[in-house]
């Protein structure tokens, strides 16, 4: 059956499937999730589920592919005409905001990476790598122009991922360390802004 819904009802059903799948896969992982669980979480019958997607793997792959596009958008939005340091800091803040607002998505993506990315390895080697290379070239140009301090640009991007996504992927650990009454995100935003501003100011 088609995976491209066209009617309002089809669009709504597909949205419900993606939301239900996110809930199940982020909690159970790919191996632990079942079509019955996704059906229950989405509020649709299993035959209805299979009308849109032929298998659990098809749902999972689509979910991850769409998630990667959302994950890459802040990097895509880095403005070559903008002020370099502010563009980097804006990227850091947007990535931290995504960890705060989309923890299930972040954990789902992290679990796929830990398993060797069997479902989206081609996307990582294609779309992700191309975008990172393009932004690394932009960062290198800004560094050569003396507008940012020299540092390996690709590792800069990777370190931003690590320092922002950690707050979603290891939320339990973070909150255990900080205590139940502290919201980690405002403090993290201030800390990371200072960290990267100090690192990159010429």
- For this structure, what is the CATH class of the largest domain? Mainly Alpha
Low-pLDDT runs of 5+ residues are: none
As for the number of domains, it is 2
Global morphology: globular
Mean pLDDT: 92
Name given to the CATH homologous superfamily of the largest domain = Tetracycline Repressor, domain 2
Strand content: under 5%
Task: Let me know the largest β-sheet.
Answer: none
Radius of gyration: 19 Å
Which H/E pattern describes the elements?
Answer: HHHHHHHHHH
Terminal CA distance reads: 56 Å
Share of helix, binned: over 70%
CATH architecture of the largest domain: Orthogonal Bundle
GO molecular function: DNA-binding transcription factor activity; transcription cis-regulatory region binding
Keywords: DNA-binding
Organism: Falsigemmobacter faecalis
Protein name: TetR family transcriptional regulator
Top keywords for this entry?
single chain; 202 residues; mainly alpha; Arc Repressor Mutant, subunit A; Tetracycline Repressor, domain 2; 2 domains; 10 helices; 0% strand; DNA-binding transcription factor activity
């Amino acid at each position: 059956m088609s995976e491209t819904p066209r009617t309002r009802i089809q669009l709504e059903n597909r949205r419900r499937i993606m939301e239900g799948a996110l809930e199940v896969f982020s909690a159970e992982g790919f191996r632990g999730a079942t079509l019955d669980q996704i059906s229950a979480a989405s509020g649709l019958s299993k035959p209805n589920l299979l009308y849109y997607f032929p298998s659990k793997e098809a749902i999972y792959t689509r979910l991850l592919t769409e998630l990667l596009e959302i994950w890459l958008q802040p990097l895509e939005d880095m403005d070559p005409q903008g002020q370099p340091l502010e563009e980097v800091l804006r990227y850091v803040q947007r990535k931290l905001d995504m960890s705060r607002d989309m923890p299930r998505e972040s954990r789902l993506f992290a679990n796929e990476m830990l398993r060797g990315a069997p479902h989206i390895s081609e996307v990582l080697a294609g779309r992700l790598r191309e975008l990172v290379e393009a932004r690394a070239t932009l960062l290198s140009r800004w560094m050569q122009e003396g507008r940012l301090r020299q540092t390996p640009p690709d590792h800069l991007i990777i370190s931003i991922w690590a320092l922002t996504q950690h707050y979603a992927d290891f939320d339990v650990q973070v909150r255990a360390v900080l205590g139940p009454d502290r919201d980690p995100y405002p403090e993290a935003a201030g800390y990371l802004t200072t960290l990267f501003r100090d690192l990159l100011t010429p």
